[in-house]
Amino acid sequence: MRLLIAIINDPDLITDILDEFYKEDIRGATVMDSMGMAHIMAHHVPFFSRFAEFGEDSQRNKTIFAVVESDEIREKAVKAIEEITGDLDESDTGIVITMPIDYCKGLAKLKGDE
Q1: pLDDT at 108
Q2: Taking CA 95 as the corner, what is the angle to CA 18 and CA 28, rounded to the nearest 5 degrees?
Q3: Could you tell me how far CA 26 lies from the centroid of its own chain?
């Protein structure tokens, strides 16, 4: 079991990504607002202000958290994300990382998972 974390640069794409997750039977994701370090630093250190984009929406990202049971499901999730964002290796799309989960309690089971 792994925790998938996907930071998506364009918040307008989140609904479409979640639709793709649903089609691939990936459920239970949590989405949070997030902001990159450069945008935060731009407000505190004048040097960084030249790297920040203007406009409130351009400063925000969305971060998706999802528990994935297998490498196969992880690959489906990444494919679903890239169907919407394009290749994550391209700039200004987003990043995906996974981390092992050594303990989990309270994760809802889907029918047939018992």
Answers
A1: 74
A2: 30
A3: 13
**Amino acid identity at 109:** K
User: Tell me, what CATH number does 8's domain have?
Assistant: 3.30.70.120
Contact of 77 with 4, CB cutoff 8 Å: yes
- pLDDT of the residue at 50: 55
Instruction: Please calculate the CA angle 64-42-57 and round it to the nearest 5 degrees.
Output: 45
40 lies in some domain: no
Domains of the chain: total: 1
Q: Which residues of the chain carry a pLDDT beneath 50?
A: 54-57, 114
The answer to whether residue 20 is domain-embedded is: yes
Q: How far apart are the first and last CA of the chain?
A: 16
Q: Which pLDDT belongs to residue 57? A: 44
* 0.85 exceeded by pTM: no
